[in-house]
Design a protein that fits this description.
Layout (H helix, E strand, L loop, with lengths): L10 H15 L9 H12 L4 H11 L3 H8 L13 E6 L2 H19 L5 E2 L5 E6 L11 E3 L2 E3 L4 H12 L15 H8 L18 H10 L38 H4 L14
Parallel strand pairs: 1-3
Antiparallel strand pairs: 1-4, 2-3, 4-5
Length: about 270
Amino acid sequence: MPQLPAPDYPAEVRERLAADTAEVIARYPDSRSALLPLLHLTQSEEGYVSRTGIRFCAEVLGLTTAEVTAVATFYTMYRRKPSGDYQVGVCTNTLCAVMGGDAIFDELKEHLGVGNNETTPDGKVTLEHIECNAACDFAPVVMVNWEFFDNQTPQSAKALVDDLLADRPVEPTRGAPLCTYKETARILAGFPDEREGAVEATGGAGPASLIGLRLFRGEAPQQGGRVVAPRGEAPHDAPMPGSRHLSSHDAPQETSASDPDHPAGPAAEEGE
């Protein structure tokens, strides 16, 4: 049975989107380049990329709906079905998983009564497992509408979603204040972030990641830890005064000491 044509937006919605669309397209020398932000723009209208949104993007950019659909289905940040006001993503990549991410995800599924990419009946929370978001220093990490909630446990994650469901204020560990998924989509479309404090918000990598940058710049590490030296040179094992391991994730001993069955000595030079 052939699929019926996608419905159009109401006149007032289309008029509003048309003005925003003209602003987005004007940023690019080729209008086709505006497709990604326009998909975010339509997502800010309905909370997902609907058939109506795909039709709209195709019409304003002179593309086929098949071309637009191919892009919308390729990127995971575009939703293809109605979703919650808050996208709760649990990182289940390697480090977050071994630090407890899998346990957090399993407990949230049971706590919320939903599966992966499913939404609570009230339409507030969509749960999903996500790929690495480059926050391994703070594992395990939960993200809500792409804002960070670091060093989570099953208990803290359940308290977090309970606050979201109850409309209680929720403050990310770092970064900008939390907003709804539709508001996030409009910001990703390239429009100003009007949240109070968003411009002044700060956040970034933790010490375990930044130590490499500091060493490259010739700066002394702010905290202790073993630094691997080039072959033939002694490793820098001595910690700085008053320092500690970079994080609780660091092994407290060298491999040869912590795993006597698999000692790891210095690599032999060729010809030895």
